[in-house]
Write a structure and sequence with these properties.
By secondary structure, the chain is mostly beta strands. Helix content is 14%, strand content 39%. It is globular.
């Protein structure tokens, strides 16, 4: 009988300790959206489509890019991995900036899938 009572009591304590106490858990790796380490904008040109301005900056623990084309709103592109050469790729879901091996120039792909190299 004592064993049954001890087992039930242990089970009750276990259930009570596992219940949510109304507090939301803190994410182990919370996403920080504070911008820092903002670099000077780089102006790059293409042969066909004019110029664009790139500004690299830290967004939390990631590197992001602000991309501004002539006559278009500024876009913030987030990292989305690397290309086959291992160079960073940034996107906002509609456009893409793929850095080239020289670390300066890159390929901009617009909403229509048209790619253009900027140097």
């Amino acid at each position: 009988m004592k064993t049954v009572i001890k087992t039930l009591l242990s089970f009750a304590l276990l259930v009570m300790s596992c219940k949510e106490n109304g507090k939301k858990p803190v994410a182990e790796h919370a996403v920080h959206t504070e911008e820092s380490l903002v670099q000077e904008p780089k102006i790059l040109n293409s042969e066909k489509n004019g110029a664009l301005s790139l500004t690299y900056f830290a967004l939390g623990e990631q590197v992001a890019v602000k991309l501004k084309k002539e006559n278009a709103p500024e876009r913030t592109l987030l990292p989305s991995g690397t290309n086959t050469s291992g160079n960073p790729v940034f996107t906002d879901g509609e456009t893409l900036w793929e850095m080239l091996p020289d670390g300066q120039s890159g390929i901009y792909t617009n909403e229509n899938g048209m790619a253009e190299t900027y140097r």
